[in-house]
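User: Please fill in residues for this 226-position structure.
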């Protein structure tokens, strides 16, 4: 990375300081920028991510069968989730992109952000081993795992809320980011879930915007079920 301040901030957000700075640089290098890009690290990071999230779910839900665990994992490691976590890390600010990708806003593209996050997991694995890579993954994903309701058949709170509202022919919710709290490298996000009918406003706090949205949706579901 060319900017040491961005590098330091990103490593603080990950909770890992790289011994090999070249691995960090490679993890942040998109193929549009040069030959030494992050695609091979993404391959490694994908496996680290899946194994780490699988272990987190296995530990958190000892009664769930394999099929339910697989559905939960698929929801957690999908591109949307990865991109939202990457956004909370401000990963786009640190990416090395070719001129075309820069002009087209590649630093905001979900697929690029998700791939770069997986590449970082692969880079941590090479830099410090699996246990450290798993710790970094768990630091980012454990808050999401903690919000899962195992009785929901693998559906997250936002999906549950949407289905409840649709079944009652009611308008879908609106999610609004209303603030953040904490230091830049350890922020929490505050999101409101606003229902027009019935009139309801709930608030969630999480380490990512998605986590905060899920918490707000969970509270809305609980209110509707009363």
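Assistant: Residues filled in for all 226 positions:
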């Amino acid at each position: 990375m060319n900017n040491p301040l961005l590098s330091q901030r990103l490593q603080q957000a990950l909770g890992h300081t790289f011994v090999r700075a070249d691995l960090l640089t490679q993890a942040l290098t998109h193929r549009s920028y040069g030959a030494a890009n992050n695609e091979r690290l993404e391959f490694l990071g994908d496996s680290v991510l899946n194994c780490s999230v699988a272990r987190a779910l296995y530990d958190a839900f000892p009664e769930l069968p394999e099929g339910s665990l697989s559905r939960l994992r698929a929801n957690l490691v999908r591109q949307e989730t990865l991109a939202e976590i990457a956004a909370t890390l401000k990963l786009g600010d640190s990416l090395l992109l070719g001129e075309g990708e820069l002009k087209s806003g590649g630093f905001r593209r979900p697929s690029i952000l998700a791939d770069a996050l997986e590449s970082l997991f692969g880079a941590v694995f090479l830099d410090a081993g699996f246990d450290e890579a798993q710790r970094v993954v768990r630091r980012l994903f454990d808050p999401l795992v903690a919000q899962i309701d195992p009785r929901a058949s693998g559906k997250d709170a936002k999906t549950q809320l949407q289905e409840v509202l649709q079944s009652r022919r009611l308008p879908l919710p609106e999610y609004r980011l209303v603030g953040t709290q904490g230091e830049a490298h350890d922020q929490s996000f505050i999101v409101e879930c606003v229902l027009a009918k019935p009139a309801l406003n709930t608030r969630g706090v999480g380490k990512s915007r998605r986590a905060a949205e899920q918490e707000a949706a969970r509270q809305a579901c609980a209110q509707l079920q009363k």
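For context: The domain at 157-225 is CATH 3.30.160.20 (Double Stranded RNA Binding Domain).
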